[in-house]
Specification:
This protein is mostly helical and about 210 residues long. It has helices at about 1-30, 35-45, 50-60, 65-80, 85-110, 130-150, 155-175, 180-210. Helix 6 runs antiparallel to helix 7 (about 155-175), helix 6 (about 130-150) packs parallel to helix 8 and helix 7 runs antiparallel to helix 8 (about 180-210).
């Protein structure tokens, strides 16, 4: 019964992510305004300057170096300790191809960055947020593989909570540092979630065949 409820929740969450991805993509393509860009940006405008260095450190967890280090550590764990070669392949391919998809989408939508003082260097277009999208892919995929090996329910919950907090902080950092609109982050989360779910399905398919 619990597993059935989990599957139903997963289906609903996937549908919600698909809706968010389509909504944000269409509105960005039409150059429409987002109410969340105004409302959420106002909330983050009151963030004290003293915490800016913290968010600069957090945002590095979603850039190329941060993602690269975390992915390599996870691959080493999967290959050397777990001998999970299918999982290692799924992680490597999902992140590598997902990163390229993120770049293609940016060049497709060509949305300019917010007309604000950028507190970190940025060179690409704004939508979708690469930090949110690729961060979702790598950290969600790693969390899934960790939870697969976790023995207790409390350990799985802990992994899920830590991953959710990290992803939320990475997304928030892009808004606080004034390099993304909130809709960029929302679209990045949604697209990243859809992408990682597809790769989890691929991983499970090949794992069953291997067994």
């Amino acid at each position: 019964m619990e597993q059935k409820n989990y599957r139903n929740f997963s289906y609903l969450f996937f549908i919600f992510a698909l809706f968010c991805a389509l909504l944000t993509s269409i509105k960005v393509a039409m150059s429409s305004d987002f109410w969340i860009d105004d409302k959420v940006a106002r909330l983050f405008a009151h963030v004290p300057k003293a915490v800016i260095p913290f968010f600069i450190q957090v945002t590095e967890m979603g850039d190329k170096k941060g993602i690269g280090v975390v992915a390599l550590l996870a691959l080493a764990w999967l290959l050397l300790k777990q001998r999970n070669y299918v999982g290692a392949g799924a992680l490597a391919l999902s992140v590598a191809i997902g990163n390229e998809v993120s770049k293609l989408l940016k060049n497709l939508f060509v949305r300019p960055r917010p007309d604000l003082e950028h507190l970190v260097d940025v060179k690409s277009y704004s939508f979708p947020s690469g930090h949110a999208m690729v961060g979702m892919i790598v950290y969600f995929m790693i969390a899934y593989l960790l939870m697969e090996e976790a023995k207790s329910k409390s350990a799985k919950i802990t992994i899920a909570v830590i991953t959710a907090i990290l992803l939320l902080l990475i997304g928030a950092s892009r808004i606080v540092l004034q390099v993304h609109y909130p809709s960029d982050v929302l679209g990045g989360y949604a697209l990243g979630y859809i992408w990682v779910v597809i790769w989890i399905l691929i991983y499970n398919y090949f794992k069953k065949r291997q067994n």
